[in-house]
Design goal:
The structure is a single chain. This protein has about 375 residues and is of the alpha/beta class. The chain is built from twelve helices and 13 strands. It is about 35% helix and about 20% strand. The strands form two sheets. It has an eight-stranded mixed sheet. It is globular, with a radius of gyration of 20 Å.
Length: about 375
Amino acid sequence: MSTTPRASHRARAEATCLHASVGSLTRYGEPAKYQGGLYRIADNTYAWLVPNGSWGETNLGLIDCRGTSVMIDTGWDLRCTREMLNACQDITDRSPIDQVINTHADGDHCWGNQLFRDRHIIATHACIHQMHHMQPRALSALYHGSLILRHVNVAGIDQFGHYMHEMFRPYDFSGIRITSPDHGFSVSKTLCINGVDIVITEVGPGHTDGDAVVHVPARRVAYAGDILFVGVTPVMWSGPIEKLVAGLEFLQTLDVDIIVPGHGPLATQADVQHVLDYWHFVHEAMAQRFKQGMGPTQAARDVIFSPAFQQAPWAQWDSPERLVTSAHTLYRHWGAPAFNLPGKLGQMNLLRQQAMLAFELPHATPRVMRHP
C-alpha cells in the first residue's frame, strides 16, 4: 500500500539540500526550476538532483549502510560522475562506496561505471546484455560531425545536426570505457548490508530492455530509474507499453515517502500517477491514429498538436518531441511494417524526425535544442 499524499508531500518538503550545485542555470542554459545538488531524503539516504532533468541531466543516489555505501547509477561522462562524488565525499570518507547498482543501460546512467571498476556493479541480466548498444566514441563522432550537418539544408539534416550538437554540448565522451556490471540478476535481488535491506526489482523491458527499481523499505525511499520522469517527457525505447505501465503501477504499491526519478525533481506517488496518465493518453491517442493508417511520426505530430494534448499538463513538460520515438516503439509492438531503417542508421533517422518536430515547437524546452 502506498503512503498518503499528504505524508508524502511533507516528506519531500523536508528533504534537506546538503550541497547545492553552483549557479541558477541548467547545463542547457535554462533557468533551474528547482535547486540541484546533494539531498538527504531519509536517514543516511541521499539523492543527487540535476535540474531540469533533460538529456543527461540525470539523478543519482547514495545509500549509506553504516560503514559502506551503495551508489545508484553513474553519470553520462566522468566529469558529471565526479561532480556528484565530490559533493558526497564527507559521507563516502566514512562509508566508502563498495557497490554500484545500474537501473538500466542508457549511457547517462552507467558511463561513469569505470570510476568503480574495482567495486561490485549490479544490474539485471537484460541491462548487462544491452550495455554496449551505444558507444561513447560514436557520440563523440556525432557531436563533431553535427557541426557539418548543421549546414546541410536538406530533409531536416541541418535541424538534426543542431539538435544533436546541442544535446551533447555539455558532455565529454572522450576517455570513457564502458564498464559492464560484474553481477547480474533476473526478477529480483535483495542486498542486506549491515542490517539495511535494499530490494532491486526488475520491471523491464519498458523504457529499456533491463529496467530496475531500487527500494529501501526501512527508509521509505525508492529509486525509479527512467521508468519515471517528472516534468520531463518520458520515452519508451524498448516497450511494450503494457510492461512500462506495469512498472509504474509497481512503484505505486511501494510504501514510500519519496521516489527519486531518473530525471526531474523528487517525486511522490502523485507524480507517478501523472506519468501513468500520460502513457494511458498516448496509448489511446496513438492507437486511434494507427487504425486510421497514419505512420508513427505523422501520428506523433498529430497528437502533439491536438487540442487534447495542448490542454493537458504534459504539454508543458520538457522535450515533448520524444513522442516520436515512443510512437515508433508502439507501432513496432503492434506489428506495423517497418517505418524506419534498421540498426544505428534507423536510430539516427528517428532522431532526425524527432529534431524536425522539435523545431516546430518553439516554446518547448530546453530552447537551445531548437533555436539555431
